[in-house]
Design goal:
There is one protein chain. α5 runs antiparallel to α6. The radius of gyration is 20 Å and the shape is elongated. It has about 210 residues and is α+β, with helices and mostly antiparallel strands. Helices cover about 45% and strands about 20% of the residues. β4 and β5 form a beta hairpin. It contains 6 helices and 7 strands; from the N terminus they run ββαβαββββαααα.
Amino acid sequence: MKFYLIDSVLRDSSEEECLSSELPRVIVLTRKEWEETTDIIMPEVNRNRVPENIKNSRAESHFECMSGTFSVPDREKPSSAKKNFAFVVDPSGIVFVDDTSIVNTYLAKIKEDTQWNHPCLERFMYDFADQIIRKDTDVLEKYERQLGEIEKDILNEHNNDRLKRLSRIRSDLREMRIHYRQLLDVSQQLEENANGFFKGKNLRYF
């Protein structure tokens, strides 16, 4: 269980300070911790807003909160098992429910690299999303180079095992396309701001 406050930087906090502060809060829990502490961390939120099985990236608006999930592909092997975690947003901040530790990795980078002149929950969520896609340009450039090599080999008739490799790349790229499409859906859901949790001037971050 980890507690942070969105100040000029993302700073560590105690449970007592975090839950009483007027600053937007960021809390990271395991699923077991979420089930045990929902009534304390987010007393107005139904604990069932966090699904048991996460299969994709999506977001939903509810009366008392916005909830969603992220399913993040392994950038080395996008067709392999994904890192899955959930989030719940209410007017006080955001709670991540994560058994993989990937959220802590993203937050460590934000703490290390990011300072805010106008800190707010929306800007934090923008920077968090940036962590999810930060290395994707390099990954896609790698695939472009590999496809160029395969094309050259096929033209030169050195195509042993190239079709299998081409099939794997196509599969990986398909998974990445699905990932981006789901992230766009999440972004659109956040931007709609159906329950009015976000400030209108900050919706540009989505």
